[in-house]
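Changelog entry: the FMN hydroxy acid dehydrogenase domain-containing protein record was regenerated in this release. Current contents:
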Amino acid sequence: MWANCFLPGLALCLEATAVMIDKEGLPDTGLDTSNWTTGELPPISDMIDINDMQFAAKNTLSGKNYAYYRTAALDEVTYQANLFIWEKIRLNGFSFVDVSDINLNTSILGYNFSAPFFIAPAAKAGKASAGAETNLAKAAGAAGILYVPSISSSENTSTIGAAAVDGQVMFHQEYIWSNKTKLQDELDEIEAAGFKAIFLTVDNTGVNGIRDRSMRFTSGSNSDHSATFTIEALNQLRNMTSLPIVPKGVKTAHDVKLCADLGFPAVYISNHGGRVVDMAPTAVEVLLDVHKQYPEVFDQIEIYADGGVRRATHVLTLLALGARAVGLGRPFMFANVYGEEGVTKAIDILTLELTTTMALMGQPDIAGYRGNTTFINTRQVELEYFGAPLDVDPSSSPTSIPSVSSGNATSRQ
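Regenerated structure tokens:
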């Protein structure tokens, strides 16, 4: 970055000044921004971890567009909790295991994908790139992961659907609009465009959350979301489409259990990135509460989760707590400032972190982490959230361990 300076009696001169990015408390992993120019896209080679993508977006986007993605509700307590709850968790890694064959393959609603993470619904990808949602669809298709576009996308539903590569499976997000004609039309469009399931956002009841950061650039608007969405209304909606419906935005163990009892194939634990109810619990805390109150639910229904996920260790933590797949929203919006190439790089970064961490933890198959709490120590979270650790066996052993003396298998699970 160059700043003008003027010295009396001398010609106008230029002085080099380093770009300073407010990293908002995110981990400092040594990113050097001294050669960046404010308002210009930094070299993609500078992007080493997913948080770097946020810093690049902050440097490049207008304040208004960055705030649109970054904003959260009220004091952003939940937004911050999403990002930093991981510091209270420890992972257990095990040695003496063959990890030469790493397997990330994951099924979601019966469809096969190449990884246990997916691109979660996030609105207006066009604020980051002219390629908008098409960039995300193409990158996800090439990588074999799931993409779930928002109904509030920059591009229309049919355009995003047409961007799919051969054989690509995408789901689609939908809101519960008070205008039932609009709702029916959108459900029909989603199905006609080839999407295979609906992530139905259930945590916007009549209004959006108050998001101060974005309201400094634009006033809040009427959300047009239904304020009378009851279980009866939900059952009526299920008859409006033949696609499977997954309630998204569930924030309590009670509602996870309710969705299982109502016969949904899956439920999506999410606090909407801290954008709706501030001080709502994180996905880690909700999953722990499900373990405490309704452990049977994990055998009844698929569970997806998101919120503050930036690292493979975060993905593995949520899988170990019982999630089948894990979503990331903002990170891919930020990566989209580089277009499809940036989204692809973000996918590659997370995939490399996953394969590396899995090998180092001694479990090469992603299925071996799912619901296997022996890989995680969440005692500090339990103490703070419940007032005491959960009443479970604290010993940890991920598999049956062969006896050294006899060669026979003995289990310490």
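Residues 141 and 165 are 6 Å apart (CA to CA).
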